[in-house]
């Protein structure tokens, strides 16, 4: 399995690498004005390289597809068709992606889940397809890729326990 398969599955559902990267770019640009969309694409690809992220995407996308085909047992089928606001399993699954890169990803996910930025909005509002999971999975993927970039920001102040006044510009582990 690879991040290429995950990209292919996303593309089949109408989501491109560029669309996710643009969301990441919007999230991180205020903290890094030299950041490019291409760097954001690299970060998305790195997140997609993690098997646990791939498995999460496969699961959520499969559930959306099964719901579109009417193949889920009741009441789950009706819950998915109505995108019930109290369902919450879609957000819970997406949090599995978010937590790969820590709490900063969680705050970004909350923002994206509320604001429905970029392709997330069109997935959420799609009239003929069911994207109960996909909109949240894309938000989780973008939030994780954004957090990954934040963790690697060379300009972020780091604190040394011996002399907290010194600033170090060492690369933190991704």
Task: Describe the fold and architecture.
It contains 9 helices and no strands. The chain has helices spanning 3-12, 17-28, 37-48, 51-68, 76-82, 89-98, 103-115, 119-124, 134-151. 61% of the residues lie in helices and 0% in strands. Helix 1 packs across helix 3 (37-48), helix 2 (17-28) crosses helix 3 and helix 6 (89-98) packs parallel to helix 9 (134-151). Mean pLDDT is 92; it is low at 168-173. By secondary structure, the chain is an all-alpha fold. It starts with a helix and ends in a 23-residue tail after the last helix.
By DSSP (H or I, 4+ residues per run), the number of helices equals: 9
Low-confidence stretches: 168-173
| Major β-sheet profile | none
Counted beta strands? 0
Write down the overall geometry: elongated
Distance between the ends? 22 Å
Radius of gyration over all CA atoms, rounded: 17 Å
| % residues in beta strands | under 5%
Q: Pairing-aware structural class of the strands and helices?
A: mainly alpha
SSE pattern, N- to C-terminal: HHHHHHHHH
Specify the helix fraction band.
55-70%
Mean pLDDT: 92
How do you describe this structure in short?
The protein has helices spanning about 5-10, 15-30, 35-50, 50-70, 75-80, 90-100, 105-115, 120-125, 135-150.
Task: Describe the secondary structure blueprint for this structure.
Elements: H1 3-12, H2 17-28, H3 37-48, H4 51-68, H5 76-82, H6 89-98, H7 103-115, H8 119-124, H9 134-151
Helix pairs in contact: 1-3, 1-4, 2-3, 2-9, 3-9, 4-6, 6-9, 7-9
């Amino acid at each position: 399995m690879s991040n290429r398969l995950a990209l292919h599955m996303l593309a089949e559902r109408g989501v491109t690498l560029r669309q996710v990267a643009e969301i990441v770019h919007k999230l991180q640009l205020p903290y890094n004005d030299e950041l490019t969309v291409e760097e954001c694409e690299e970060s998305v690809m790195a997140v997609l390289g993690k098997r646990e992220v791939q498995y999460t995407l496969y699961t959520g996308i499969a559930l959306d597809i099964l719901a579109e085909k009417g193949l889920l047992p009741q009441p789950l089928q009706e819950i998915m068709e109505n995108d019930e606001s109290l369902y919450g399993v879609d957000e819970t699954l997406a949090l599995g992606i978010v937590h790969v890169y820590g709490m900063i990803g969680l705050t970004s996910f909350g923002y994206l889940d509320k604001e429905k930025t970029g392709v997330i909005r069109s997935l959420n509002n799609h009239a003929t397809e069911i994207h109960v999971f996909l909109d949240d999975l894309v938000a989780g993927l973008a939030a994780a890729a954004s957090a990954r970039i934040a963790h690697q920001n060379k300009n972020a102040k780091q604190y040394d326990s011996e002399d907290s006044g010194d600033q170090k510009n060492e690369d933190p582990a991704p």
